[in-house]
Amino acid sequence: MVTRSDSEIFNAHWKHMLSAPPSSPVYIIDDESDVRRSLHFLLSTVGLVSWPFASAQDFLDNFSALEPAPVLLDIRMPAVDGLQLLAVMRERGVNWPVIVISAHGDIQVAVKAIKMGAIDFLEKPFDFEALDSCLQTAFAQLAHLNDSFTARNTARAAFALLSPRESEVIKVLMGGVPNKAAAHMLDLSVRTVEMHRANALAKLRVKSIAEVIRLAAAAKLGPEIAVRHDQEYAQ
Description:
By secondary structure, the chain is an alpha/beta fold. 54% of the residues lie in helices and 9% in strands. It has helices at residues 4-17, 33-44, 56-61, 82-91, 107-115, 128-159, 164-174, 179-186, 190-204, 209-219; strands spanning 26-29, 50-53, 71-74, 98-102, 120-123. The termini are far apart.
């Protein structure tokens, strides 16, 4: 259980670390109601909103309505346990920061949880300074993921503006092929290649192919930026 002194220490440290509480909640997945209540009380003292789940299945049943957030995950639960939930999250490509907690922790379970994507492992009854540190790391990682997600979507939206021919030309040029060679490969005139290159750079709001490559990396598109359409390419 959380004592008053635990709460005061935790509260004081977070007030020092944060100018405002993070906007995202913290998900608590634990089959022990006392643990859920204790963590809910502790997090509420610093303005952190917690959403308790009594089982991994309860969390999965509500997953579609949840926003990305740190997860405090008990490792030993009936039916679907913590490691199984980590496996499901990994299969779904969900990379939310997960802090694994357990009263039965051992080094093998800890190592397996970390390998499966957990950012840390805490053994009950854990030190609240350790929880504090893990949550700081979790929110920092979440902020980075959100920034990457925003950058990816912005970059993908830019590439979506390219015509099929512009995408094809840019894809070839990203491979380090000069304009003249690209024209030969695509059976176009050099002037046409230069025109599509200029139009593509303008739409992508960049000035060089090197910047296009960086933008494609941010979009996580790699060399697959050229999406073919059903209609014929217009030259």
